[in-house]
């Protein structure tokens, strides 16, 4: 699973979940922006950075790192990134470092050079496989879904879907979360069939996910391309490029229109007319 990108999406979509994770009020998210930062002229990238909004010097910068694989050099790299950031951006604000380990066993054991930092209030280490009370928090529930046992994933996913529908009045946020939950489920259960996925999600939920839209597009494109080949023979590369840019709805319309085609010229005319109508 691409955990870095998953957690980036979680914190970008539900930034309050980060503050709940470190036992701070969810409302703290209202005064922070979340970003991933690449440090100039280096190979370093900080997974996540919560920066106070509107220049509030009393609030700390939060450096966030997600670690799902054992890496003996992890702390050397992480603290290097932090201090390099502070140097490059001449920051005078307080800071906090938060590390999210998949489990305690992957944390480096050779920590002597960093012991004072790790034992100070500056650093919070969390182990995502250890029990967390998620009953009241949709965000924490989604984080738990990332590390949940495969057998428990369907049940937790269904509960989160139900909670998202009931707790989120914002339709766009609800759609983003449904898509995020579906993405995590697909990573966790890669052998899950479309039928099993449909049983987990309601039909309306599934239609709103990126997964459904991608599958629908691929099916429409493949079906239309096969019909064109049967109807008018081979398609030039230029025409195929134009067809690939069509929306699902346009592909479905083309699938109906091509029943009357007799040559590639008919396809060219249809595509030109489509371009004119979109202009």
Helices and strands in order, then pairings?
Blueprint: H1 3-13, H2 16-21, E1 32-38, E2 45-52, E3 61-67, H3 74-88, E4 95-101, H4 115-118, E5 123-127, H5 138-147, H6 153-167, H7 171-188, H8 194-200, H9 203-207, H10 210-232, H11 237-244, H12 248-257, H13 264-278
Parallel strand pairs: 3-4, 4-5
Antiparallel strand pairs: 1-2, 2-3
Helix pairs in contact: 1-5, 1-7, 5-6, 6-7, 10-12
Pfam families: DUF2887, DUF4351
Protein name: DUF4351 domain-containing protein
Organism: Richelia sinica FACHB-800
Description:
This is DUF4351 domain-containing protein. This protein is an alpha/beta fold and 279 residues long. The chain has two domains: 3-147; 210-278, no CATH class. It has helices at residues 3-13, 16-21, 74-88, 115-118, 138-147, 153-167, 171-188, 194-200, 203-207, 210-232, 237-244, 248-257, 264-278; strands at residues 32-38, 45-52, 61-67, 95-101, 123-127. Strands 1-2-3-4-5 form a five-stranded mixed beta sheet. It is elongated.
């Amino acid at each position: 699973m691409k955990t870095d990108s998953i957690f980036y999406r979680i914190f970008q979509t539900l930034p309050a979940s980060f503050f709940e994770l470190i036992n701070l009020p969810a409302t703290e998210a209202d005064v922070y922006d979340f970003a991933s930062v690449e440090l100039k002229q280096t190979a370093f990238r900080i997974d996540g950075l919560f920066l106070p909004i509107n220049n509030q010097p009393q609030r700390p910068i939060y450096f966030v790192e997600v670690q799902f694989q054992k890496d003996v050099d992890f702390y050397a790299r992480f603290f290097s990134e932090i201090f390099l950031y502070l140097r490059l951006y001449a920051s005078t604000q307080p800071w906090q470092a938060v590390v999210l380990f998949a489990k305690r066993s992957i944390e480096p054991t050779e920590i002597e050079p960093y012991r004072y930092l790790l034992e100070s209030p500056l650093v919070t280490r969390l182990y995502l496989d250890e029990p967390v009370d998620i009953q009241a928090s949709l965000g924490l529930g989604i984080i738990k879904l990332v590390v949940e046992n495969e057998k428990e994933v369907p049940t937790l996913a269904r509960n989160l879907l139900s909670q998202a529908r009931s707790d989120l009045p914002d339709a766009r946020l609800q759609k983003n979360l449904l898509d995020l939950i579906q993405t995590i489920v697909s990573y966790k259960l890669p052998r899950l069939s479309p039928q099993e996925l449909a049983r987990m999600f309601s039909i309306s939920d599934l239609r709103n996910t990126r997964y459904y839209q991608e599958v629908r597009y691929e099916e429409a494109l493949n079906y239309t391309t096969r019909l064109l080949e049967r109807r008018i023979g081979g398609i030039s590369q230029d025409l195929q490029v134009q067809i690939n840019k069509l929306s699902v709805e346009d592909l479905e319309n083309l699938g109906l229109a091509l029943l009357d085609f007799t040559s590639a010229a008919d396809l060219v005319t249809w595509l030109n007319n489509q371009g004119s109508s979109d202009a």
